[in-house]
Amino acid sequence: MLAAAQAAPGTPPPLAPPDSGYSFPARETLTYAVDWRVFPAGTTTLHLEQQGNEERVTATADSIGAINLIYRVSDRYESSFNRTSGCSAGFSKQIQEGRRQVDTDLKFDYAQGKALLNEKNLVKGTSKHQEAPVGPCVTDLLSAIFYPASQTLTPGQSFQVPLGDSLHTVVVTMKVEARETVRTPLGSYQTVRVQPTAAAGVVKARGNIWIWYTDDARHIPVQMRARLFWGTITFQLTSLAQK
Predict the structure, then answer these.
(1) Tens digits of per-residue pLDDT, 37-89?
(2) Which of 149, 162, 122 is nearest to 216 (CA)?
(3) Domain range enclosing 212
(4) Helix, strand or coil for residue 50?
(5) What does pTM read for this prediction?
(6) Domain assignment present for 60
(7) Domain count within the chain
(8) I need a surface site. Which of 33, 189, 222, 231 has the fewest CB within 10 A?
(9) What's the gap between Cα 145 and its chain centre?
């Protein structure tokens, strides 16, 4: 679990495989209400589905109500990872935020040791292709929500995760902070609070982030929060379905 301590200086730590007793859901859909400060801001859905030895994750994020008048959001994300090793195959996103419309596709070619990025700006009509070295096994921004669920979450301990963030590999430290009771629209849960931190990349750019996982064998993310300079966004679970 703390394999990062064995990594050479300057080398991203290896991604520890999921605990032997943990199994990712065969099929599961989680729906969250999103609040900005005290205002309802949107809905987010995360869907996991097993496809052979791969776990496919899809996500949607849509703004609602008055927020649409200020800044409309309609985003789509997709990733997949190996259920045995945790290694991500790639991450894609289709972003529609305000006037911005960008499609991004990131693939990890471990055989060639490369990260391959293709991006299209639908408003400007431009596109680009970039390549960069990647380690033998990384997670991605979407899969990284679920990867900690596969690890032993003991308050007071931490572990490191190599995250493929665009064309860079960023070391993210998962700090397991404390056990806490969380009340959501779906009910109250006994949880373990985890804070991801990083010295660079999108995790650092998102300010302070916390994820609350159920304190049981499933480790379901029932609440997420990002504290940014312009306010706090909170995601609370409103629906959980195995379909």
Answers:
(1) 766 678 899 999 999 999 999 999 887 554 554 556 778 999 999 999 999 99
(2) 149
(3) 3-19+26-238
(4) strand
(5) 0.88
(6) yes
(7) 1
(8) 231
(9) 4
